[in-house]
Amino acid sequence: SFFFTHDNHPPLGKLSHDLELIKMWVGVDAYFKDEYPLDIAVATNMIQVGMDVDRLGLMAVTGQPKTTAEYIQATSRIGRQTPGLVVTIYNPYRARDLSHYENFTAYHAHLYRFVEGTSATPFSARARERALHASLIGMLRGMIDELRSTKEGARKIEQINQDDIQMIIDMILNRIKIVDPNSVEKAEDDIRYFLDEWIKLSRTEKNLYYNVHHNNQGYKMNRVQRLLKAYGSYGKFNYEKETLNSMRNVQKESGLYLWED
């Protein structure tokens, strides 16, 4: 994404990390009564989630997005507090854009009719890899007081009664059994493996946190270790488990590898 100041200076720069993007919301969310509100936020990709700024009222969309669901999701970012205007800029040399232009009124009059059905694989291998352990940690911290502390909870996992942990595991597995019975065994294996690795770390790393930012001074000086890291972010150690910041989207794509016999 790019951001422009009130006096149309050049863009402040391309922002590739979520933390940098979050810092800019202070300016985007500023109102006209403030001294230096930002005028324009230009996204290099379609905006899906996270850009919840009430004062945004005008959006220009370059070309028709791939799916109607994406079109609705992106354009709903504006007009939240007061009425907004969406301007779609079509390319006359693209047959798809031209067709949408010619049928603009009919398409928008029945917009939700054109929303595509999507498939869901909630307990596939890649989904489990990215989110299952996060659900486990969330439930453990929410239901077991000793694990709740951000600074001390992660290192206490071995001290917890195994029956309490098993109760939470069973809750997760029972839910999986309802949705996808064939994935229960693999999900349990993943949970057991993650817990074993967590316990090993709690024995060797005396300052184990659930998560700290990679710029944290304690982390940079090896005084603090972390169990988790943001998906796709920098990490010093292989044992740091990549974890999604949101389950509303998949963030980075899964890799596909082909082996030939």
From TrEMBL:
The domain of life for this entry's organism is Bacteria
- Classification via Gene3D superfamilies: P-loop containing nucleotide triphosphate hydrolases
Q: Does the keyword Ribonucleoprotein apply?
A: no
* Protein name as it appears in the record: Helicase conserved C-terminal domain-containing protein
Record keyword Nucleus present: no
Q: Which residues form the signal peptide?
A: none
The record, for SUPFAM superfamilies, names: P-loop containing nucleoside triphosphate hydrolases (SSF52540)
